[in-house]
Amino acid sequence: METLLSRIEGKRDELVALTRALVQIPTVNPPGEGYTECCRLLGERLRARGFSVRYLRAEGSPGDSDRYPRMNLLARFESSRPGPCVHLNGHIDVVDAGAGWSVDPFAGVVREGKLFGRGSCDMKGGIAAAIVAVETLLEAEPDLPGAIEISGTADEESGGFGGVAWLARHGFFSKPRVDHVIIPEPLNVDRVCIGHRGVWWAEVTTYGRIAHGSMPFLGDCAVRHMAAFLHALETRLWPELARRRTVMPVVPEGARASTLNINAIHGGQPEGHAGLPSPCVPDSCRVVLDRRFPIEESLEEVKGEVVGILNELARTRPGFRFTVRELMEVQPVLTDPALPVPRTVAAAIKAVLGRTPQFVCSPGTYDQKHIARIGGLEDCVAYGPGILDLAHQPDEFVAIDDLVAATKVLAVAIRALLRRDWDLNAAAAA
Fold first, then answer.
1. Rounded to whole angstroms, what are the CA distances from 121 to 53, 131, 265?
2. Closest CA relative to residue 300, chosen from 333, 263, 261, 331
């Protein structure tokens, strides 16, 4: 094990260079820019190191077009000896840079031991760590049993339907092809993420009747109807959600309660007009709800609470009419920490970093949802470099020491999984 760790330590500059190269391809989603270029960069590198490489476009998935193809990379190294398959999956897309940066968000600036850039933390640093971990492991022990797969996938930031979900539906995340999955998302280098909360996204629209704004009594204001709905959420649902706690080890602590966010609100005349508005009573208003829930709640209960409030308003408030359009639903995921991947990654953290690992759950969803629900594969965790709180922020960065540390942990864990040495007994003896 020490030889393997020393080899990785010597590849610090290579790790930084690969992460920078990935950051410098602005794979912003939406709309889904640069996916093909990013997949080609990864694929050409892995092909040169003995991997078979496939480029898979998720045709027909949300957002897919000839201009913005939902391109995915799948690379596989097959040993001559039989054994399990370990799959390392990372999403290549990043959110928009936004304002407030002190550096160019797509330059990959390195200073004070940190690599800055959009996606450096979430999660191009993790992809680089996984690739260098696998490359170094195969250099050190080319006769390991089994197979290693690496995927770079699209659209995780918008639900993963053009990436892992599409691949899972086509059998790429199911046994017997794959046995174990590690997703190097940024959850801190001494944490193993064993799941995430569920999510229900819905668009609620209230309706009214248009009229002249100087005579609002001749119309029916949809915004006021929406205000009544929001007031009910404020006084009834939000206090109730704050009282609910989960046994899931969700981080940060505030996310151990059920949550509801108003993602957007639009009413009346369309936005973007530069001049003065015309005087009209708005005949529609819509909000987008982002409801997150733990394993103790059912999806039916989550929906029922919101629809129940709306139905009550329809009964008691004159003229109240509404529709609900469901946008996305994801069940919570909680992996048994006794399964091989969480056990092995935890043992690798202890062996490499000398720290007692913490099992956590993510407040938001990530692509484990599709691996578990569509692929039917439960032995999956998220582990990688970076601090979750920095994701989607200005001046996002990954610490270079964390990049190196996570690469070492991943290499040791992959080696143990291929050898079915889940508790690293052989590594400890060595």
1. 25, 15, 30
2. 331
Residues 6 or more apart whose Cβ sits within 8 Å of residue 269: 277, 278, 280, 282
Residue among 99, 129, 97, 100 at smallest CA distance from 27: 97
d(C-alpha 401, C-alpha 189), whole Å: 10
pLDDT recorded at residue 57: 98
SS3 47: helix
- For residue 427, the model assigns a pLDDT of 57
pTM for this predicted structure: 0.91
Q: Which residues are CB-neighbours of 123 under 8 A, at least 6 positions away? A: 90, 91, 184, 185, 186, 384, 386
In a 13 Å sphere around the CA of 355, the CA atoms on its Cβ side amount to 14
- The SS3 assignment for 290 reads strand
CB 43 within 8 A of CB 76: no
Question: Rounded to whole angstroms, how far apart are CA atoms 244 and 302?
Answer: 13
User: Measured over all CA atoms, what is the biggest interatomic distance in the chain, rounded to whole angstroms?
Assistant: 84
Which tokens sit at 378? Answer: 């439960």
Domain boundaries, the chain: 2-196+332-429, 198-330
- Top CATH class, 2-196+332-429: alpha beta
Q: What is the DSSP string of 362-408?
A: ESS--THHHHHHTS----EEE--SS-GGGTTSTT-EEEHHHHHHHHH
CATH hierarchy code of domain 198-330 = 3.30.70.360
Q: What backbone torsions phi and psi does residue 78 show, to the nearest 5 degrees? A: -110, 125
Q: HSE of 237 in the Cβ direction (CA atoms, 13 Å)?
A: 23
- What does the DSSP assignment read for 236-286? IIHHHHHH-B-SS-BSSGGGGB-EEEEEEEEESSPTT--SPPP-B--SEEE
| pLDDT < 50 positions in the chain | 429
Residue 68: the pLDDT is: 98
pLDDT score, position 430: 53
C-beta separation of 154 from 83 below 8 A: no
Q: How many residues does the chain have?
A: 430
